[in-house]
Write a structure and sequence with these properties.
This is Divalent metal cation transporter. InterPro entries: NRAMP_fam (IPR001046). GO terms for molecular function: cadmium ion transmembrane transporter activity; manganese ion transmembrane transporter activity; symporter activity. It is a multi-pass membrane protein. By secondary structure, this protein is mainly alpha-helical. The chain has one domain: Amino acid/polyamine transporter I. 76% of the residues lie in helices and 0% in strands. The chain has 19 helices and no strands. α2 runs parallel beside α11 and α9 crosses α19. The longest helix has 37 residues.
Length: 422
């Protein structure tokens, strides 16, 4: 009996470890930004924007496959291929765009988590604990930099992943409760309402932010680094396709569950989200009086587990661009990390509405996606790059449709950000 149990456990472990990069994508995408976008989308528009989530996951699947195949066949990272075949200026533009996405994401995420923590501590202590958002932000930045400096972050990130998973599971359970609630018609979640709060952003901004957090340019650019780290070869192409499929299916299920939870608890009651802590009301049906604590702990974990990779990503990309080893103990890279981390002080110091700043930061991702997709299409059809592994008509059609979708999302993002700036 014990032998059978060991065999089963070994099989499960092998299955899980075979999807390494997939779980990185899920862990990165389903974080503070995703929770914020899905909750706001569900609370303000019900499930009317679920089409954007579905299409972004669908097209992201093809982009992941394309980037991974290019990396495996060429033996080089995405940015190195871009620099070699399209020149330094365009590659530097993409890197600069990714840096803007990284910094804006950290600004929004830290704004969300500091607001949630201050409110949570005040509620837990009945007002006895009154701390400032600046102090909270400095505390979290200090923790992240210490972990980076000492290089002992693996166990910490594993713990954060477990906490995020608990919050995600709570949203999934809540969505099931909502769907099987006999007192509510499912069609009600798709009904159009005119009672949207004036403090909320436009529907275009929400759509762009929703797509931006799912089809995240930062994640896609870093995909080639993960594939290189895994050491995948041509024999692993099928495994890579399966990995991409798992990542997008689970991302869609978890994100849709968050949206359903918000739609079934907030949208149907016309509850308007004004502050970050308001989002915890989407967990009340399952968590009850513990909803605030569960949400706060989950958001803290999601924030830290999202910010830490963001701190490392630009030095990684810079190393790839310069064809140097990814050794982050160099003084230049440490200075980069510290400067990027300090961007998290922006909202605590200067103020602003963190929910909409975070969604607006995610809405920036569609600005660079058409260029990345176009470059991928060109490279994947070049014989001197792909040799006999050039993509066929089906993959070309999928990527062309992805390019069209990205261009459409760019127009949506421009409209949404224009309204937001006004």
């Amino acid at each position: 009996m014990a032998s059978e149990e060991n065999t089963i456990l070994t099989t499960i472990k092998k299955k899980l470890t075979s999807f390494g990069p997939a779980f990185f994508i899920i862990g990165y995408v389903v974080g503070t930004g995703s929770v914020t976008s899905m909750v706001v989308s569900g609370a303000d528009y019900g499930l009317r924007l679920s089409w954007a989530l579905l299409l972004s996951c669908f097209f992201t699947y093809f982009l992941i496959i394309a980037i991974s195949k290019l990396t495996i066949v060429s033996g080089n990272s995405l940015l190195y291929n871009f620099k070699t075949h399209f020149g330094k200026p365009l590659t530097l533009f993409i890197m600069l765009a990714v840096l803007v996405l990284i910094i804006s994401s950290i600004v929004g995420i830290m704004g969300i988590v500091t607001e949630v923590v201050v409110k949570w501590l005040s509620e837990l202590s009945d007002g006895a604990i009154a701390t400032s958002e600046i102090a909270v932000a400095l505390f979290f930045i200090f923790i992240l930099l210490v972990l980076f400096w000492r290089g002992k972050h693996a166990s910490f990130l594993n713990i954060m992943t477990v906490l995020v998973s608990l919050m995600a599971l709570s949203f999934v359970v809540t969505s099931v409760v909502v769907l099987f609630n006999p007192e509510m018609a499912f069609s009600a979640l798709f009904e159009k309402k005119d009672s949207i709060s004036e403090t909320n952003g436009s529907i275009e901004l929400v759509i762009a932010g929703l797509v931006g957090t799912t089809m995240a340019a930062v994640v896609l650019v870093s995909r080639s680094i993960l594939v290189e780290e895994e050491g995948w070869k041509l024999s692993d192409l099928k495994r890579e396709n399966k990995d991409a499929g798992v990542s997008m299916v689970l991302t869609f299920i978890i994100s849709l569950a968050i949206m359903i939870s918000a739609a079934g608890t907030l949208y149907v009651t016309d509850f308007k989200i004004e502050n970050a802590i308001d989002m915890m009301n989407a967990l009340v049906p399952v968590a009850g009086e513990f909803a605030m604590s569960l949400f706060a702990i989950g958001i803290i974990a999601a924030a830290l587990s999202s910010i830490f990779p963001n701190l490392l990503l630009f030095p990684w990309l810079w190393s790839d661009y310069n064809e140097t080893p990814r050794k982050l103990d160099k003084p230049m890279y440490r200075i980069m990390v510290v400067c990027i981390a300090l961007a998290g002080m922006a909202i605590p110091i200067f103020g602003g509405k963190p929910i909409w700043i975070l969604i607006a930061s995610q809405a920036l991702s569609p600005f660079v996606m058409p260029l990345i997709t176009l470059f991928l299409i060109i490279l994947l059809n070049r014989k001197n790059v792909m040799q006999q592994y050039k993509i066929g008509w089906a993959m070309n059609l999928a990527l062309v449709c992805t390019f069209i979708f990205n261009c459409y999302m760019l127009t949506i993002a421009l409209s949404g950000l224009s309204d937001y700036m006004k």
